[in-house]
């Protein structure tokens, strides 16, 4: 789909010269070999004021990033799943306080890690049922194999989840396997980035009677005109797909060692549909998604969520109003967590001063493993999108620097 600048920056409250600092700054990343290429989009008042690309979607082939390039958005899938679950909530399919085991029986009678090693873990009964709101807020006690912080993380790796979903299991099977392993903590008592949103994806399937890809396609993507987004890439669009890169010890971008396998897998629907990280998308499509969120659930006459639901999702839901620095276990991204809470599927800025980055109270956001990022700032009527393909996202301080460069360009 066509994507182009829709408004003169000055009309949208930007200084065009200052906006160009985004391009000048991130061009240096490409010239230094730190990123293969990127796309940046800034919109205000519903219109694109800045759109730029630089570098390559495939360095070896000399193929540049274009506005229609397809990217692996990894954890930027999570807000889509969160929207899906809240659409079902609005239809009365469940209450946020309902136990997860009502939809996935294996999540009954959970146990919590209390000591020992991965080979001989000690556990105790969980003091609280895992509930749907725990999944939405990442306070469920689940984890990711890649954290390398706790023996439970090792249990996930030993069960085949180190690189995402286990190869031989479908989504239902993955959920049953996660339920068989101990939690890191009692649900609701701490925050840990985890497979929780994948479990939400399974609840979408059970509650709706549709597979996750069908629900996304018929209830979100087609209504919003997101024709480039899905769990697999059409073979006819193979030349649009960006190559995935990883950072070497010096922070330079190198092709992913499993690029051939990843490239081939991109065209096949995976056995386990990951609501936590499985989507491919384009700037056009994710921009449509962020505009729907900015407009509190509606875009071009299509309403996915009620305005009060979006407002509720984008408040800090962490216990006691705590921020992530206080409640999170370990590190999970390149951005600071002070002043930042977590809502139902999004990080939420409560205190920009504590966060030490120019932003607005109420800004909500998330990013992906390959250094992609977005945020929505209702106070400034602003959305920002940055797409690239470098793992891991913690390699460079892209998100904090992007904040500096966008907000310094606002002059109204």
From TrEMBL:
Pfam family, one: Beta-lactamase
Entry-linked Gene3D superfamilies: DD-peptidase/beta-lactamase superfamily
Domain Beta-lactamase-related: 22-403
Top-rank taxon: Bacteria
SUPFAM superfamilies on file: beta-lactamase/transpeptidase-like
Entry-linked InterPro entries: Beta-lactam-related (IPR001466), Beta-lactam/transpept-like (IPR012338), Diverse_Enzym_Activities (IPR050789)
Protein name: CubicO group peptidase, beta-lactamase class C family
Species of the source: Saccharopolyspora shandongensis
């Amino acid at each position: 789909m066509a994507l182009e600048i829709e408004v003169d920056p000055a009309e949208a409250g930007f200084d065009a010269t200052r906006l160009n600092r985004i391009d000048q700054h991130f061009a240096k990343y490409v010239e230094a070999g730190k990123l293969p290429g990127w796309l940046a989009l800034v919109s205000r008042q519903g219109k694109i004021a800045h759109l730029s690309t630089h570098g390559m979607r495939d360095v070896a082939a000399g193929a540049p990033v274009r506005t229609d390039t397809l990217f692996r958005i990894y954890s930027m899938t999570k807000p889509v799943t969160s929207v899906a679950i809240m659409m079902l909530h609005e239809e009365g399919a469940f209450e946020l306080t309902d136990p997860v085991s009502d939809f996935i029986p294996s999540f009954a009678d959970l146990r919590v890690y209390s000591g020992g090693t991965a080979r001989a873990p000690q556990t105790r009964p969980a003091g609280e049922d895992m509930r749907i709101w725990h999944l939405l807020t990442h306070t469920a006690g689940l984890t990711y194999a890649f954290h390398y912080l706790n023996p439970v993380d090792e249990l996930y790796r030993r069960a085949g989840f180190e690189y995402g979903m286990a190869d031989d299991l479908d989504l239902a099977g993955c959920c049953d396997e996660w339920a068989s392993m101990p939690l890191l903590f009692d649900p609701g008592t701490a925050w840990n980035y985890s497979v929780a949103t994948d479990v939400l994806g399974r609840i979408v399937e059970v509650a709706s009677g549709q597979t996750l890809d069908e629900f996304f396609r018929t209830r979100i993507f087609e209504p919003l005109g997101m024709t480039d987004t899905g769990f697999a890439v059409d073979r006819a669009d193979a030349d649009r797909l960006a190559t995935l890169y990883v950072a070497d010890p010096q922070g330079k971008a190198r092709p992913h060692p499993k690029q051939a396998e990843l490239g081939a897998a991109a065209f096949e629907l995976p056995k386990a549909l990951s609501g936590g990280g499985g989507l491919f998308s384009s700037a056009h499509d994710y921009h449509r998604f962020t505009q729907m969120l900015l407009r509190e659930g509606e875009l071009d006459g299509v309403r996915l969520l009620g305005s009060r639901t979006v407002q509720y999702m984008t408040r800090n839901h962490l216990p006691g109003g705590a921020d992530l620095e206080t409640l999170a276990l370990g590190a999970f991204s390149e951005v600071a967590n002070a002043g930042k809470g977590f809502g139902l599927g999004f990080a939420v800025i409560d205190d920009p001063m504590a966060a030490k980055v120019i932003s607005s109270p109420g800004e909500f956001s998330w990013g992906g493993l390959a250094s992609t990022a977005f945020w929505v700032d209702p106070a400034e009527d602003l959305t920002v999108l940055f797409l690239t393909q470098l793992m891991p996202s913690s390699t460079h301080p892209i998100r904090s620097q992007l904040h500096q460069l966008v907000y310094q360009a606002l002059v109204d």
